[in-house]
Amino acid sequence: TTGNTIFHFLTEFPYLIWVCLFFLLLAGSLSTRCSGRVEIAYKKTWGTVCDDNWDINDAEVVCRELNCGTALNATQSAHFGEGRGEIWLDDVSCSGSERSLTECQHRGFGIHSCTHSKDAGVSCSGVPVRLSGSTLCSGRVEIFYNNIWGTVCDDNWDINDAEVVCRELGCGTAQSAAVSARFGEGSGSIWLDDVSCSGSERSLTECQHRGFGTHDCTHSQDAGVVCSDAQIRLIDPDNSGATLCSGRVEIYHNNRWGTVCGGGWDLNDAEVVCRQLDCGPALNATRSAHFGGGTGQIWLDDVSCSGSESSLTDCQHRGFVIPYCGHYQDAGVICSEIRLTGPQSTRCSGRVEIYHNNRWGTVCDDGWDLNDAEVVCRELECGSALEATQSAHFGEGTGQIWLDDVTCSGSESSLTQCQHRGFGTHDCTHQKDAGAICSGVPIRLAGSGSTQCSGRVEIYRQKTWGTVCGRGWDLNDAEVVCRQLDCGSALKATQSAHFGEGTGDIWLNEVSCSGSESSLADCQHRGFGTHSCGHGEDAGVICSGIRLAGHQSTQCSGRVEIYHNKIWGTVCDHGWSTEDAEVVCRHLGCGPALNATQSAHFGEGTGQIWLDEVSCSGSESSLTECQHRGFGTHSCGLGEDAGVICSGETLFKSRTSCCLLDFCNRIRLSGHQSGRCSGRVEIYNKKRWGTVCDDGWDLNDAEVVCRHLDCGTALAPPKEAHFGEGSGPIWLDGVACSGSERSIIQCQHRGSEKNGCTHHKDAGVICSGARIRLTGSTRCSGRVEIFYNNTWGTVCDDGWDINDAEVVCRELNCGTALKATKSAHFVHQNVLSYCLLCSLCPGVPVRLSGSTLCSGRVEIFYNNIWGTVCDDNWDINDAEVVCRELGCGMAQSAAVSARFGEGSGSIWLDDVSCSGSERSLTECQHRGFGTHDCTHSKDAGVVCSGGASFSIELLYLLFILFSVLLQQPRISVTSPDGRLAKVIEIMKGYSFIFTCSNNDRYSGGVFNLIYSGSNMKHNKTSVNSSASFSFPVADFGHEGRYSCVYEITLTEGTFTSPEAEWIYVSVICKLSKHQNSIFLFAVSVMGQFT
Fold it and tell me: Are residues 805 and 852 in the same domain?
């Protein structure tokens, strides 16, 4: 018979292997060609294999030897029924790379301690599949059928089909489904056509298709895939074959699967694995062979991930070497099979998706309520549910809708334990996708002396409260905690168990927040429970518990609100005084109080009024320490809300919000050869000046700085400490401005003091220095004002014409002048002067970036953002308009394909079509602002001749640059005792001398001494770069602030330096000891204003 013939053939080759399905099919066994009990022929007798230590690596060898694809499961305990006769092998141990099962380590043929109740088996994927023509995880798809490798036709080939191939090969998720023989044409058979997979099949041959060898294709239509190159899998011996998002971690390297040592294994490492496998967030990083010990190679040890890597092998590790580990230390992960995703989602808020049948799918919002959301939040360890969102609040999902009519009691441990209609049964569309907003990882403040808004930080995880280690703990971290608890701003980040030592778990260590995160758990850290700390290092916070809010409020001015009984409420203005405001300003670190506002100056609040008839002495540390009628006791309406205006800011704000005295100087330009509008960028934070790192620093960033300083437009963003290296902190790194922000701190950045920069990368700016602005209308139309002698003033319209307006428009980068208006055309009701002017400009400026003044990438300013122009149909006529508009002569060429480098951000114009006679590029035909089908690889540019107009522009530029080269002078005052200081006391009747000096290369100028108490200026010619101003008899009229400027007249004009830093002189009589102490206190207060 056929069976006897095959048996005779196999017995001639005693080490051949076959799965017993071949002989049991006739007996009605449930096994198939590629799954069943493993039997081998030895000494002309078939026998089984014992399942002692039988694992997926052993099964992999069997499946490969049988041309049955990859191993899906290594079955034990006679899963396919008990065999008979011999048991040939026991304690088999394969690495997974062997060609035959008998090459693996074992106890010897026939040596065992088993019965047939322990017969081993395998489940293989079936018809083998491979990728050719590229890499291990990308290439042309080929399958092995009828002993021949053949290709797959690309008819209807899509991402679902590719997903099945990638998963079958252990190559992660599908990134693209390649068609049209992208990886080259194959040869021979075309085995499959019209493949249609749902995406959840275990093998490509399980998908619908026309049948093996039935097709209407050529090899020019060979299908391919690009997989994520995951090369990682999870093995759970107790759950083999099921949806796997938890198990022992194994990676594929050097053609062999191996495990990962658990030394140092933490939640950040697990997070990378879960994301790489497209599972939900990591819930646990297991060690000590939690999912059983593997066999063979241990590939990685001392893995250290930040949590943001795309692959485990991208993390730091000791290299692919034999580690000092045993398989009893094998690492594993437990990933969630539920996630929150979608636009504007966070770790704890988003569209609900569950992982089922190897695919992510959404949940329909029919009957969706807070109980259902509660289960989701608890399952993700995200605190309690705040809202159950409906109607695709976080955007519409794609693909499968897994659940509908979900009904939870709220106590279930998993959403799938709730009642529902069954997986995939629904009557919904993705417009009804459900979502959840959770409170986040629960957090509280505890300990000795703690309050609602100050105490030891504790978070709740795995049903246990635990502390946070204070290593690296700073104000940014505290800011996140205070905001998460709705406790105002952070005043202090405490360490060393300031509020007493906690007990139990220490959940977080080496926390590193930028300060903008919504939850402490969103910050970088070493992983939950990973630390080497004791409770003597427990971290804490002191939050303000007070805030300033309301219309046009800033960080240091606004309606006063306090946090009490977990509710924000206002303060009544009965008896509200400067002393009360002083306490608020000091508490917030905002300097002295300038004004105590009443009558809801910053708008009316809502809800509770907590305090009334507040009476502070001014020395209290908190408003609640002042006398008042008691919390909630008042006789006020919301129209009587109290507010404050403080003098200072904790970090610089817009000039319009802080220029009440001299407290705007929260950004400055410094360094070698710096001027008022060029220099190293420095910002003031935490009472210290610091620099900005030049990573990503570009013209948009410089534009924000220049505008903030009223220095016109940005000409260049110098890098690499162009103006010399600064010192102290580097406050910002990775700054990315669109160009429309009012302040550099409104731009995206990496936060303060957490960067990898040194001062040799300090960023700088060169601004046009234009001291001109338009007010009363739009950016490019309005009343003309110029900045002179530290004051803005207007221009009279006598003789004002279109030529004058043209200069203004060009200086402001506003195109050409359309009209020169007169007679206070833009005067507001509160403006009394009639001697004003305004020019109307087109309002869409153009500039060239990436090369020279008259050649470069074309960029236009629209909607307050600089953007590029696409090169579709870009030609010499278009370039001609640009060159003429910029006064750069004639166009020599129209550059395409990002010849001057790729821009960033918006692409404003596409399909531009100019006749060449237009005055401005935006007058040409185009598809509309922001409408395009381009990438920045197609950014358009121009090369202009320069010509006579170029010379004029160059002279203009040199004029501006020249005007800012004068350095800031120094001023000092010498008293009779020889002391030099910024605040100096001089006895009445004594003499004193001011000295102004500089190191400027332009000698022979004049120093002007400026006195704040008078309009009079003293001037003296510079001799050896200095000048002295003597006052022989000090009088009380000499009290005030003094500064000096340096002025020089050259053939090109008269140029003035920036003012020196102010110095304060106080004239005193000889006082008693008591009087003297009072005076010194007053001087110290006034010193804060200098």
Answer: no
Angstrom distance (rounded) from CA 950 to CA 945: 8
For residue range 740-780, what is the model confidence (pLDDT) as tens digits? 777 787 788 876 545 678 888 999 988 876 567 776 545 56
In this structure, what CATH number is given to the domain that contains residue 44? 3.10.250.10
CB neighbour list of residue 262: distance below 8 Å, 6 or more residues apart: 286, 287, 288, 289, 325, 329, 330, 331
CB atoms within 10 A of CB 485: 21
Using only C-alpha atoms, the chain has a radius of gyration, in whole angstroms, of 38
Which residue in 141, 209, 130 sits closest to 170, CA to CA?
Answer: 130
- Residue 971: inside a domain: no
Is the pLDDT at 837 greater than 60, yes or no?
A: no
Residues sharing a CB contact under 8 Å with residue 257, sequence separation 6 or more, in sequence order: 56, 57, 60, 95, 96, 233, 250, 251, 296, 297
Under 8 Å between Cβ of 197 and 161? yes
Closest by Cα among 250, 263, 264 to 313: 250
The tokens describing 815, both together, are: 């195109």
User: How far apart (Å, rounded) are the C-alpha atoms in residues 528 and 521?
Assistant: 9
What pLDDT, in 10s, does the model give residues 49-81?
999 999 888 988 888 787 777 777 888 888 888
Q: How far apart (Å, rounded) are the C-alpha atoms in residues 110 and 131?
A: 39
Q: What is the DSSP string of 504-568?
A: S-EEE-S-B--S--SSGGGSB-S-TT-----GGGB-EEEE-SEEEEEEEEETTEEEEEEEETTEE
Q: What are the C-alpha distances in Å from 482 to residues 467, 476, 478, 700?
A: 16, 10, 6, 33
The burial class, CB within 10 Å (0-12 / 13-18 / 19+), for 30 is exposed
- For residues 255 and 307, membership in a common domain is answered with yes
Q: Are residues 257 and 287 in the same domain?
A: yes
State the alpha helices, DSSP H only, in 289-406.
370-379
- Give the total number of structural domains in the chain: 9
Residues 99 and 176 in one domain: no
List beta partners, residue 801: none
Model pTM?
Answer: 0.39
Residue 788 domain boundaries = 772-812
State phi, psi for 417 to the nearest 5 degrees: -85, -15
